[in-house]
Automatic annotation (TrEMBL):
Gene3D superfamilies: 3.40.50.1970, Dehydroquinate synthase-like - alpha domain (1.20.1090.10). The gene is egsA. GO terms for molecular function: glycerol-1-phosphate dehydrogenase (NAD+) activity; glycerol-1-phosphate dehydrogenase (NADP+) activity; metal ion binding. This is Glycerol-1-phosphate dehydrogenase [NAD(P)+]. InterPro entries: G1P_dehydrogenase_arc (IPR023002), G1PDH (IPR032837), Glycerol_DH (IPR016205). It comes from Natrialba taiwanensis DSM 12281. Zn(2+) binds at D172, H252, H268.
Length: 353
């Protein structure tokens, strides 16, 4: 008897392009959202994008509220929840880099409200996915939230973001290669749920990005276009899979562990990129695809070594040997690497000297 069922949750409108920031009110109208929006933003994006969007709402006769958060913490999520209640907001709009959007996503989940994503940096795939996580003391508070109702990604705004945020977004996409390798391995060894569509879309997204790496250059608005489309596609792969597996394997565990050991040392995408070089080596050995991953990262100016991440060798080794403990997600790291093995992979791949 056939008893499978699945829910695939996707954003209803995805608007990407030059000047589309001014389409937010139209998108809200198209979604038939009523009442008052609460714009969730952080200090820099507030001036660049949130205030202009708020002005558009006012011009349309809608009175928006704004809350500015400083950090990606659980306290910020609570601040937003309180603001939404105090301002009688009926939906949220995250305007900013990954931080403001993650917070808006998590708050909207707690409030059982819809939210829109208006990214001002193409820095990671959280701008479209349904996954949200923030550090919460010694652990991470993660939720499988809803994906945004809509994403409005203005390439004119995104191109103005610091260049390293765009290269971090690229590196996050390139890491899809190893995420899918880990997922296939977990399917073979642990029978975890696997989606051929989710895996294929995720790998294809990374391939298209690598093929278009020549168009990813500082000062080119097309870079924002290429990277944002890839982040959307990666987010759709996660929605199809109903899991972050298509875009998150051992390289993400490594990055989450670095976040604990050396908070704010480097950007998420840059950390997963370096992690991906090493886990590709673990999957394929000397002749595997680790060199292709390293070269792809290098070609878009993303870090490929511990030093370029601003980390010392010992921190990298500690993250590599302990990150399998973070969550119950089977990867190439299995039950953990011993220190000599970790040192060998990090040295052979040139991540440490
Ligand atoms: Zn990521």
């Amino acid at each position: 008897m056939f008893e499978k069922s699945t829910w695939i949750r996707l954003p209803r409108n995805v608007v990407v392009g030059h000047g589309v920031r001014s389409s937010v009110v139209e998108v809200v109208d198209e979604l038939h959202l009523q009442g008052r929006p609460l714009l969730v933003t952080s200090p820099t994006p507030r001036a660049v994008a949130a205030e202009p969007v708020a002005a558009d709402f006012e011009a349309a006769g809608i009175d928006p509220a704004i809350v500015t958060i400083e950090s990606a913490t659980f306290e910020s999520v609570e601040t937003v929840i309180e603001a939404a209640e105090a301002e009688a907001a009926s939906y949220l709009i995250g305007v900013g880099g990954g931080k403001a959007i993650d917070i808006a996503k998590m708050a909207s989940h707690h409030l059982d409200m819809g939210f829109l994503s208006v990214p001002t940096a193409a820095s990671h795939d959280g701008i479209v996915s349904n996954r949200g996580s923030v550090p919460d003391g010694d652990t991470r508070h993660s939720v499988a939230a809803e994906p945004p109702l809509a994403v409005v990604a203005d390439t004119e705004v995104l191109a103005e973001a610091p260049w390293e945020l765009t290269t971090a977004g690229c590196a996050d996409i390139i890491s899809n290669y190893t995420a899918v390798m880990d997922w296939r391995l977990a399917k073979r060894l642990k029978n975890v749920e696997f989606s051929e569509y989710g895996a294929a879309l995720s790998e294809m997204t990374a391939e298209i990005l690598v093929d278009n790496a020549d168009h990813v250059r500082p000062g080119l608005e097309e870079s924002a276009w290429v990277v944002t489309k890839a982040l959307m596609s990666s987010g759709v792969a996660m929605s199809i899979a109903g899991s972050s597996r298509p875009a998150s394997g051992a390289e993400h565990l490594f990055s989450h562990q670095l976040d604990r050991l050396a908070p704010e040392a480097a950007l998420h995408g840059h950390q997963v990129g370096v992690g991906s070089i090493m886990t590709a080596y673990l999957h394929g050995g000397e002749h595997g695809i680790w060199r292709d991953i390293r070269d792809a990262l290098d070609s878009i100016d993303a870090p490929t070594t511990a030093a370029e991440l601003g980390l010392d060798d010992e921190t990298v080794l500690e993250a590599l040997t302990t990150c399998h403990e973070i969550r119950d997600r089977y990867t190439i790291l299995g039950n953990g690497m011993d220190e000599r093995a970790a040192r060998e992979v990090a040295t052979k791949t040139g991540v440490i000297d």
